[in-house]
Recover the amino acids of this structure.
């Protein structure tokens, strides 16, 4: 895999570089960025290229626009924030609009690439047509830098197809992510404990299947723990439940490595001002929904994490976005930092670390890619990475 350092060695001054970044940040209802972690993580490679005299055209997506351009999903606020971080304004440009007219060191951001349905098309010809337009922007002697780790598991025009048509290099973020995850996927120091949460078991089946034989314990919290509790025969009230996964959870439990919460914070409705109570995990009343793991579970999980040499954590333990259901995530997030190697993967988990005011530097690595990091650890081949090997 060639890297951005190789590109700079080859000479990049005066060349136009198309750079795929992951700038898919959460926005509040007013369109304000609530967590700029992914923008900050993209800055070093952009800065390196622009500092070396390249013209940089950044391409990225925001959300999942369904029907073409959607003003609510414009990258305009992201361009503004990126400009602040770079210390120079970043113009938002449109594909098919006027040629950007770039000078050495300039950085521009292309509007949300997913406004063009060809970006995510399953049809390779459609994707290739969009890739051709992107490649054309780089003129003669262009290059492609892949730095959007959060999208490398996607076979999409700006991730995969462009890398076939331009000399392609891995950016610093992609390199750092792959470095850390390849060590976890290789021969991590034991005990190796994995903490999983988040909303859906079905999202995490693959990673549980792949990791169970290789880890010492899997601690399960978040919305997904209720399907496991159901598999033990417990009632779960109105908590999240994936009935079609109960059997699979039962099989996972047979490994003897799954650690479940013993108490749960239940609420009478899904709201920050709901009436709450802590109940045993085997005593969730009908009509209540479990929105966080309880204090006893946090202590149990912390104990299981205490002796771990390596920890991978994906998925919040509760609905941390609402204060009454944030304690489980906070407690586990703090316990995770005690491990020799602590890796956080998952967009919401990373956002939780920052939203709860925890010290990011206490972790060995916070991945910017949820799906991508899980697929990497499952041992899948990620199209956006394999295309860089080619
Ligand atoms: P990540 O992005 O870190 O991979 P996920 O996307 O899988 O994490 O899950 C994050 C979401 O899971 C959060 O928005 C959180 O509110 C939700 N969640 C966690 N616990 C529960 C629960 N008990 N009930 C409903 N939703 C939950
Ligand atoms: Mg998520």
């Amino acid at each position: 895999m060639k890297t951005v350092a190789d590109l700079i060695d080859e000479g990049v001054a005066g060349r136009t570089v198309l750079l795929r970044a992951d700038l898919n940040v959460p926005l509040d209802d007013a369109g304000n960025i609530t967590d700029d972690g992914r923008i900050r993580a993209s800055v070093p490679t952009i800065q390196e290229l622009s500092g070396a005299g390249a013209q940089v055209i950044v391409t990225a997506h925001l959300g999942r626009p369904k029907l073409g351009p959607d003003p609510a999903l414009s990258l305009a606020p992201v361009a503004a924030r990126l400009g602040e971080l770079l210390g120079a304004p970043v113009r938002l440009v449109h594909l098919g609009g006027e040629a950007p007219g770039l000078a050495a060191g300039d950085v521009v951001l292309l509007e949300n690439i997913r406004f063009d349905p060809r970006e995510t098309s399953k049809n390779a010809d459609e994707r290739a047509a969009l890739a051709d337009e992107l490649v054309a922007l780089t003129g003669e002697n262009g290059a492609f830098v892949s730095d959007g780790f959060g999208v490398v598991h996607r076979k999409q025009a700006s991730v995969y197809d462009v890398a076939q048509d331009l000399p392609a290099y891995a950016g610093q973020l992609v390199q750092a992510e792959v470095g850390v995850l390849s060590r976890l996927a290789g021969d991590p120091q034991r005990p190796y404990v994995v903490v999983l949460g988040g909303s859906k078991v079905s999202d995490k089946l693959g990673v549980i299947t792949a990791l169970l034989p290789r880890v010492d314990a899997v601690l399960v919290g978040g919305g997904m723990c209720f399907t496991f509790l159901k598999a033990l025969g417990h009632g779960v009230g109105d908590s999240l439940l994936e009935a079609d996964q109960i059997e699979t959870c039962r099989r996972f439990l047979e490994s003897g490595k799954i650690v479940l919460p013993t108490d749960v914070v239940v609420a009478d409705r899904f709201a920050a001002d709901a009436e709450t109570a802590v109940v045993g995990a085997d005593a969730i009343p009908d009509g209540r929904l479990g929105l966080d793991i309880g204090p006893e579970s946090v202590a149990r999980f912390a104990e299981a994490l205490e002796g771990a040499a390596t920890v991978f954590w994906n998925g919040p333990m509760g609905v941390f976005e609402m204060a009454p259901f944030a304690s489980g995530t906070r407690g586990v997030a703090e316990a995770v930092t005690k491990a020799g190697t602590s890796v956080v993967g998952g967009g919401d988990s990373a956002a939780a670390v920052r939203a709860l005011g925890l010290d990011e530097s206490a972790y060995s690595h916070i991945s910017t890619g949820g799906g991508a990091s899980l697929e990497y650890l499952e041992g899948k081949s990620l199209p956006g990475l394999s295309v860089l090997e080619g």
